[in-house]
Amino acid sequence: AVQTHGNVDFVVVGGGTAGCVLANRLSADPSKHVVMLEPGPSPVGSVKVAAPVALTKLFHSSWDWKFASDPTRATAGRAVHLARGRALGGSSAFNALLYHRGSAQDFDEWGLPGWSSEHWLAAFCAVERQRRPELAKSVYHGTDGPVSVEDARYENPLSSAFVQASLQAGMKENPDFNDWSTDQAGVGRFQLQTRRGRRAHAAATHLRPALRRRNLQVRSGCSVTRVILNESGEATGVEFVDKHGNKQIIDVSGGEVIMCAGAISTPHLLMLSGIGPRAELEKHGIPVLFDVPGVGANLADHPAVANGYSIRERMSITDEMFIAKGILSPARLLQWLVRGSGPLSTTGCDFGGFVRTDTSKALPDLQLRFVPGLGTSPDGVSSYRDIGRSGQLRSGVTFQSVGIRPQARGSIRLRSRDPFEPPLVEPGFASSSADVKTLREGIRLARKIASQPAFKDIIVTEEWPGAGLQTDEELDEYISRTLHSANAIAGSCKMGVPEDPMAVVDLELRVRGTTNLRVVDASVFPTMPGGQLGASTFALAERASSIILGGAETTTPSLGLA
Ligand code: FAD
Description:
This protein has 562 residues and is of the alpha/beta class. Helix content is 26%, strand content 21%.
């Protein structure tokens, strides 16, 4: 028999980055009963999640949804691994921790009332607790929020050589990539969402402080299978399967459902609930409640490729971490446990830069991430997994080129009407010649940096792509053979004005045609703010909470931003 629960004000579907923020903010009022449903477990207490460097061990593990792209010719027939966090905290419990917001222009270009860069800045600052003293004084940073942002507490000499070589190659230094009064371009130190070298994920920053509230019920091990709606667009129930495999329904009549299942699972669940492109739903025999063509469309991700170099001396991050193959240095472990510093306190890519590969571009299209280590293959994701499994000890450096403002768009479609069968995900990788050009120029820029005096006595050989590949055609073939995801995945239920036929949610994040169903996760970004998306998702959920609670007009007018 199906168990039914009632008297709920808010059901939060998905306990990920956005879900944890909402669970906290919405349950602050003790009169509101909030239930959050999440398939994954709590990461609190897991060293693999807490230690940034252990990110390599999370790929392909039980913390990973292990999605894959639909193979296309543009990726040489390969299914590209698409990692997503399966835990309370979601992908914030699994990401590379880089703290980037893109540029003010990214948000202003949307032209969406209530969502200008000024509104976003207020939300970014409300979430942030900036630890670098010089930045804490800046109007572009927050100091009282729950998410700690700090510099990596480890610096490999190879990273210093990278910065020096980049300057020698003509790049300028950028001390703060999130200062919107200056150009995002330049090279330098990325900041991380960590607290004294430990991962600051949403289950720790937002959920843990709220767990004692009697009006908040967090249910892990529960997979939502659909939202039940009536013909007037009211969500009346949320159907889910609990950890024992039992089907249950939460009655939400009079309350609200907030979809926070992420940019792959949210459109999937909407389609299973009868909201999506008519033809797609009919193909799978799902009754169409609302024909919303934008559900699953507009999907974007960051494509990435890598240059790898062997080096003369054993000075990579893995050389510092392991005393023998797969055996972690006790001194390094102790350093992290006691002081929160050393190689275990970084995800390994905390130096890099932003670049316009073409001077006509208004904003940088390329992010270069420098890793003081060499993977097992040019596929960054496979390398992470292999290092995690074997603790390999090859010395070298990697430059990862990431297309941060991609042109390509793809889609999420149904494979079947079975909620436990993953959807078809096609991010459109390498389908845009502009995106391929960005990556190609990234490979060439990495080569230029690697050949500067600062690396002269360090770098030995270009392992990949390899000196033999030089022409556009050769590099493009390398790109299609080795392109991987830099884990952004967004846009599949975009926010927009009513006149936009492809908009899925309105400016208050309500799903078209419905009255009490919203989406608050990375699905709603119309385009990706140029940088990683974790910080923007925290800020989105912060602002969404204010909108839902009715106190949204928090701006920072003194800045005079557009
Ligand atoms: P998520 O945080 O993924 O949350 C979605 C939640 O919904 C998950 O907990 C999931 O288990 C749950 N869910 C799924 N299906 C269901 C269902 N049927 N029922 C109920 N719940 C469900 N961002 C950065 O800022 N910096 C980085 O360095 C960075 N690196 C990354 C590296 C990796 C490997 C990954 C995976 C991501 C990275 N990101 C990074 C991206 C960033 O983490 C995400 O953009 C952001 O966390 C997305 O938040 P979200 O709330 O939309 O989704």
